[in-house]
Amino acid sequence: MNKFKKIVDIIVTTIYPNKCLGCGKILDDDNYLCEECNAKIERNDLEKICLNCGLEEHDCVCKYNVYRFNSLITVFKNQGVAQKICYNYKFKKRQHYVRFFAKEICNAIGNCYDNVEFDFVCAVPSFDRFGFDHSGYIARAVAKKLNLPFYNNMLQCVKKTKKQHKSSYKERLSNVDDKYCTTQSISTVNVLLIDDIKTTGATLDECAKQLLFAGADSVYCVSVLGSVTNIEK
Ligand SMILES: [Zn+2]
Ligand SMILES: [Zn+2]
Fold first, then answer.
1. How far is ligand 1, taken at its centre, from the CA of residue 92, in Å?
2. Where are the domains of the chain?
3. Are 161 and 128 in contact (CB under 8 A)?
4. How many angstroms does the Cα of residue 59 sit away from the middle of ligand 2?
5. Of all residues in the chain, what percent carry a pLDDT higher than 90?
6. Ligand 1 center to residue 218 CA distance, Å?
7. What ligand has the least distance to the C-alpha of 56?
8. 87-115 pLDDT, tens digit each
9. How far is the CA of 40 from the centre of ligand 1 (A)?
């Protein structure tokens, strides 16, 4: 049986070799990145991260923004290899990348939220519920890894907004105001909220507002990418 499994493994890896998510190079192990991409990828230094805005201390925007979530970690900077991987995931719909994101997110949670007991995981919803649920797929994989319930429809998007990437922080805040709603009341729970790309934090802030309004005790956020672009200083 073992021999059979080995043969199947060899056939599968010959047809579908494991490739580096960053550069596409064929890997002879089951890692997600080749050595070069792993050395190059722009991870935030979790020792130096400001847990209020999720950015490294020298990029901290806390004096410009007051968020309603309890804490935020952004795992990677929004540039280079990490940006390429995240954009390929989101826009080329490479769903299998979620395993890489879940691994990195769980590592960050183990480092920064080690003392928090979460009750469930949910995600920033996308407007098209039947489309590519980019944050939801990651949140589901994180929940599975942490052995926590995943509340798929906890948050819903009720208002379509114009594309946000060129909006200022203030425009974003008003764009997302009441964009989301919760679908059930909750009480005294610690929520782990997942997003793929955090820009100003306005979306996470609005989702946290709704979760707190629904009865959550605290909302801890993690996003794969975090950037400081478009912040009005
Ligand atoms: Zn590579
Ligand atoms: Zn900060």
1. 18
2. 1-40, 43-226
3. no
4. 8
5. 65
6. 38
7. 2
8. 999 999 999 999 999 999 999 999 999 99
9. 9
pLDDT at 230: 47
CATH code of the domain occupying 43-226: 3.40.50.2020
166 pLDDT tier (thresholds 50, 70, 90):
low
Could you tell me the distance, in angstroms and rounded to a whole number, from the CA of residue 29 to the centre of ligand 1?
Answer: 13
Question: What gap in Å lies between CA 100 and CA 31, rounded to an integer?
Answer: 9
Q: Is the pLDDT of residue 173 over 90?
A: no
CB-based neighbours (< 5 A) of ligand 1, an ion: 20, 22-23, 25, 34, 37
Give me ligand 2 centre to Cα 62, in Å: 4
d(CA 88, CA 70): 30
